[in-house]
Each structure stands twice: as C-alpha cells, then as structure tokens.
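Ticket #4471: structure export looks truncated?
Reporter: QA, pipeline team
Priority: medium

Steps to reproduce: submit the single chain below to the structure queue and open the exported record.
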Amino acid sequence: MLVEPQELCSLGDVCLTESKSINNGWSSAVGSMQVASGAAGNSAQGPVFTEAHVAVLDSADIAVGRLAAVLEADFDDLYAVAFDISSQDEESARLSRATKGEVTTNPLLQTILGLK
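Actual output as written to the record:
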C-alpha cells in the first residue's frame, strides 16, 4: 500500500479544520442553551430541573472538548507520520546511492546494511 505524505498532511488539515469547527459551533450554540434559574417557574421541582439542565450542558461541554482534542491529536500524529515517511524515503534514497567507500567507512551504514 502506497501512502503519500502529502495525503496524510491533507487528512491532518481536515482533522484540524473539523476540530475548530466543532469548537466554534459549540461555543456559538451553548449560549442559547442556557436556562435561567427561574425558567421552571415556582414549581417544587424547578430547581432540580435547572440543575439537571446545567449538568447536561457541562457534560456536553466536556464531550465536545474531548472530541476536538482527539481531532487535534490526530492532526499532530498524521503530520508526524508524514514527516517520518518522508525522512525514511530520503534516507533510503541516500543509502541506495551510497558508494562502496561510504559503506565501508561509515559505521551507521554498516549497521543498517547488516555488515557490522
């Protein structure tokens, strides 16, 4: 399977964009979901209702924040893998062009090629 570092970076960019979108969407919407303390009127269970509503919003805030954090971590990981693939490709290309003199005098190349 061929994996192109540029494609990983593009996918990482999508993850970061979606993370920002989730955060912005939640931040924009959460204000309209707040319930005033007297919203349930003077019923006996009014405070219980509003407390439950606040607890749900707090839990949702944590969930949305964690989801955004997962997407941000995916962004970082995808970029790291893309960098590693690019670095390995460059090192492999350099090794394929190594001269006999480089191999016999370079302990790192000798180890990589199993000559030491």
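Status: closed, not a bug. The export was complete when the record was re-opened. Leaving a note from the reviewer for reference: The mean pLDDT is 87.
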